[in-house]
């Protein structure tokens, strides 16, 4: 494995992690107020 393929794998991993974190925070922002409203 050369440096460029390692760098590409690292970049894709970071991009996937950022997308996952963004999606989970987006979903949480939609779900949490709804659960709080129904709990009250």
From TrEMBL:
Region forming the signal peptide: 1-23
Statement: the UniProt record of this protein carries the keyword Signal: yes
Keyword terms: Signal
Protein name: Immunodominant antigen Gp43
Organism: Paracoccidioides brasiliensis
